[in-house]
Amino acid sequence: MTTNDAPKRTSYDVIIIGGAATGSATAWFLMQNPDFNGTVLVVERDPSYEFAATSLSNSCIRQQFSTELNIRISQFGAEFSQNLPRYLGEDAPKLKIRNFGYMYMAADDAFAQVLRAQAKVQVALGAETRLMTPDEIKAEYPFYAVDDLVLGSINCKDEGYFDGYTMFDWLRRKARAGGAEYIRNEVVAITRKAHRIESVTLASGEVVACGHLVNASGTRGAKTAAMAGITIPIEPRKRYSWIIAAEQPLSRDLPLTIDPTGVHFRTDSDTTYLVGAHTDHDPAVAFDDFAMDQSLWLDHVWPILATRIPQFEAVKVLREWAGQYDYNTLDQNAIAGPHPEVANFLFLNGFSGHGLQQSPAMGRGTAEWLTYGAFRTLDLTPFSFERITANRPLIEGAII
User: Fold this and answer.
1) Distances in Å between the alpha carbon of 165 and those of 190, 216, 345, 359, 394?
2) How confident is the model at residue 1, as a pLDDT?
């Protein structure tokens, strides 16, 4: 039986529930800001992060979003992750993005028009998005079958695989070195009086007062909010991944290809490939449900893969796993910033698969709000809770 850690203090200026990517990014940005002189407690129920979305992520980053805010968030993620020594200190590793890009494929005119509109936004913000005809795709990537395609879209600048887990690990290390206290424990109750969070109760029994409370609890975000009497449309959704080896490896990197069916696949190493998908019926699942659907690969995913890339007719599954998205059922975009009535309760929820790449910008913005009472670099107010209560989705047209 694992023993929970006791906090060193009875009160903290900021308590962060959840110590994975977004929680640790918030903690680090707070601790390195000379204008913040408060105390920070990060409560993490499983410091091994075995089943955290951060750990089970496919760890990719892209600029091909449809909204300016999401593009700028990802651009900062790319800049931050590739300059860790400048941000975190000279002992931090130098990481690079493997820029094979994302290849969005349109099989009808309607989605082709969407890709054209999105490309204009992306290019205007500095992305190097290229629209490709089926013949151009075939000439550059001869392994694809393209007969059913109308258009493709790809960007190979700051887009592809990045070592997101290492980035997270160093954010956590440096947050702790800067004075943030991390404990293995779980928040089991939140005391709210009128328009203010007063304290949290830990599984080990301690009641800890707080100035601000940050909900960065991933797939458990709705459960955490409910303890404060707040409802958010977040639920765990299962996502399946496979690492495969091909009998005939491709001659060049495989972009992260979003097939019109929704199945996606990309280069993993020089000889292996990663494939991802979810079931057509995509229900909410239990927090501890990471079981594989053994029929999904043979009945659905592999036939699609082999049709799009005939060389992949002969492949071998080397490894497989299921992870979970903290899925925002309203619009698959994050909920961030303070609650409009309970102003010392802050959201970092509902990233729907984008949390790892978005964590630097979202952690920075949350730390700014905690320090200054406002967002200073990127205005994250479009992600505010008000759109949830108003049932006003923030539409992002490039969801995978």
Assistant:
1) 30, 17, 27, 11, 28
2) 46
